[in-house]
Structure formats: structure tokens, C-alpha cells
Design brief:
232 residues, alpha/beta, two-stranded parallel sheet, Glycosyltransferase subfamily 4-like N-terminal domain-containing protein, Glyco_trans_4-like_N
């Protein structure tokens, strides 16, 4: 389960909603750390780990747990992250919402802009060639089957626009809910900031702004920022 999903589920639990999460197993030390941090309080989501190798998702095992739990009490809303549930299984679930944390068109869009940073005399990298050829069929497949879902929850305005304008999902079925930030975990740390300045040799009276957000992957555009930063 990704961190932002855990933040969302915990926030819903704190609002007195009963939340059950069905996810892949984790390493014992990770589970122990979560317990030590107090994430298993009465206000926390009920997390169901299916059997198997840590970090490996098996939808059939999670589905069995879900069906068993729903026998005790029916769920009002079911939330699935991207394609963790195949359509033939998901189509039988009422009130199903699917959130997409990155769609194929976003990867294609990022790849195009990434290649535009290439110098005119620089050849196209083989990795980019392979990725661009592989992502186009994914975009076409997504456009074809996205209409099978009742609702789409995008985590950015740009993703929502792509779903409406390119994937042609009706407006009433696309919802934009921007990723939440737990301000108790993410706040200013003056000491850490000064240590960073000292480490890279920047004086205290100079303003320093980093325009970085998201994971350190090419889809977020970090290589572009890194390239520009080399000229500082």
C-alpha cells in the first residue's frame, strides 16, 4: 500500500468511517515499525494482508478476504487503486471507485518532454525508443477499457483533464482529489535546512528555493531539474 493511500485511509478512519484495506503482505520488521509508531490504534484502518511473499500482490487472495469480510457487513463504497482488480471481478462490485496514480498518457507526455531536453546532435537513447514504443499501446488499451468503470478519481488537475479530454470519460464520472499531505509529518525543519546549506556551501543570507515534488523518477521531471542545477 502506497504512503498517500495510507494517509487517505487513516484520515477517513479519524472521521469515524470504518475502513478496511486489503493489500499485499509486508516484511515483519516493517509491520513492527508501524506498530511502534502507533498506527494500529482504534482509529486506524483495518488492514488485511493476504498470504504470500512480501510486496507481491495477488488479487485473487485479497478478493477472498474481501468477500469473507463483506459477508459480515456489506461495504458502502469500494475503492480500488488502478488495476489491482481485473475488470471481470470489479464489474460485479457496486459503488466502485477507481483511482489512477499515473496513467499511461502521463508517461508518454513526460517522455516527450524529457526527450526535448536532448541536444540536437545527441542520438535518441535506446531506452527511450523502447519505452515510447511500449507506452503507446498501453494508452490505447486504457482508452478502450476505462469506460467500464463507474467513477475515476484523479489525484491531479492534469490527470483529470486527460481522462476527460483524451480518454473521453464523462465529466460526472471523473473526480479530482489532490493527494493529501499530513502536516504533522511534513513541516519545516530549520536545523535540517541549515545542515543542508552547510553541506553544499550556501551562506545563511542567501535565499534557496527547490521546486521539487513527487518521487525521484523521470515521470516527475526530476532529470530536467537536475540538469539545470548542474549549472549553478
Amino acid at each position: 500500500m502506497e504512503r498517500h493511500a495510507h494517509t487517505l485511509h487513516t484520515a477517513l478512519s479519524l472521521l469515524s468511517h470504518q475502513v478496511h484495506v486489503f493489500t499485499s503482505p509486508v516484511l515483519p520488521q516493517e509491520l513492527k515499525l508501524e506498530t511502534q509508531q502507533g498506527s494500529t490504534s482504534s482509529s486506524s484502518p483495518h488492514i488485511h494482508f493476504h498470504e504470500g511473499e512480501p510486496g507481491r500482490w495477488h488479487y485473487n487472495k485479497a478478493s477472498e478476504q474481501f468477500l469473507e469480510e463483506s459477508q459480515r457487513e456489506k461495504f458502502d463504497v469500494v475503492h480500488s487503486e488502478s488495476v489491482v482488480l481485473p475488470h471481470w471481478l470489479a464489474q460485479n462490485l457496486p459503488n466502485l471507485a477507481v483511482s489512477w496514480h499515473g496513467i499511461a498518457l502521463e508517461s508518454l507526455h513526460s517522455g516527450i518532454f524529457q526527450d526535448l531536453t536532448r541536444k540536437p546532435t545527441e542520438p535518441i537513447s535506446p531506452d527511450f525508443n523502447r519505452s515510447i514504443q511500449g507506452v503507446v499501446p498501453k494508452v490505447l488499451n486504457e482508452i478502450r477499457f476505462f469506460h467500464n468503470y463507474a467513477h475515476h478519481v484523479a489525484i491531479s488537475d492534469s490527470c483529470g483533464e486527460m481522462l476527460r479530454d483524451v480518454y473521453q470519460i464523462p465529466n460526472k464520472r471523473v473526480h479530482v482529489i489532490v493527494n493529501g499531505v499530513n502536516e504533522a509529518d511534513f513541516s519545516q525543519d530549520q536545523k535540517l535546512g541549515q545542515e543542508c546549506r552547510s553541506l553544499i556551501g550556501i551562506s545563511k543570507n542567501v535565499s534557496l528555493v527547490f521546486g521539487v515534488a513527487g518521487r525521484l523518477v523521470k515521470d516527475k521531471g526530476h532529470p530536467i531539474l537536475y540538469e539545470k542545477g548542474q549549472g549553478w
